[in-house]
Fold this protein.
Amino acid sequence: MALPRILVLVLAGGAGGRLELLTEQRAKPAVPFAGVYRLIDFPLSNCQHSGIADVWVSVQFHPTSLSDHLANGRPWDLDRTSGGLMMLPPFQGTDRGGWVSGTANLLWRQADLIREFSADALVVVSSDAVYKLDYREVVDAHLGSGAEVTMVTTEVAADDASRYGIVQLGDGDRITDYAYKPDEPATSTATNEVFVFTPDATLDRLEGLDDELGEDGLEDLGSHLLPAQTRDGLARAYPLQGYWRDVGTVMAYWQAHRDFLAAEPPIDLDDPAWPLHTRGGRHSAARILPGAVVDESLVSGGTRVAGEVRGSVLSPGVVVEKGATVVDSVLLPGVRVRAGARVVRAVLDDRVDVGERAVVGGDDDVTLVGRQARVGAGSEVVPGARLPDPEED
């Protein structure tokens, strides 16, 4: 029996505003994670391990930062003569051209291209979560269910559930109710932004919604499409077994790094059976200099540590000088923490320079310092601050 024809559409076009300064100059999927990776590496690696070779990536905001990382798709075995990786930027020239205004709007704009591909299943995934999943197993369950959509679900904290699409389940895996970011969630069972659609039926439904609402009214998948499929009894759930964390906010991004500092991290990124692939850089081995202290931390290649680093993640090229202290923080590529400086519970973007004896952050909240910012010698950035202050722009 022939394998089903699967198309994966990676949603990488959102503005990522909840990540604040981290997405001012880069696409959200291009945000670094765990030192040497990028967020988009998770869905692309899932595709590779699932044996899926046709992957389209929708881009819109800061596309250069993402295309530079993806290149020709080689790290994920997507550099193929036929199929492989394809970028979907906004376009003009047809009656469906224009700026994408939501994820359902994106499917509507690309409907002709999707129909032409003639997939048995369309897998739509976001690129701002950390997890591993065999998409082909979800497709197999979907094709055997008679559903129009299968939503991969996970349990989230009750006080955080209003950030997600929330489902209620009936008999078996049947979804009886779907609510998009409800003020008062009925359950804590959330969709984790992985959906398997029956392509033609879904696109036909989108055409009907477009006739009713107009293209701008289509909005996101959860606004009208998923509720309609659920009301018609054509939605099924596929519970994710294992770790999943949305990292679309600064606090969630920081907390996800804390998860991976554990003695047994929730996902083994070097698992020989399921490694996380990325576009490799050219960095020498990390250098831990005499007198340095490094404890419960991830230290990438190309770093130089002469000070004290505890509970932190250092990306390539980070320098922590003698007498400097970095605690419970995430330092992105090229950050320099100069002698006598102290960084606590902070996320420092690319090439931030923390001057001598400066203090950044503290124990109360996560502090965020934007790309290439300079923190003057002896100055103080209070806990929870944003530098530069977005209110001053």
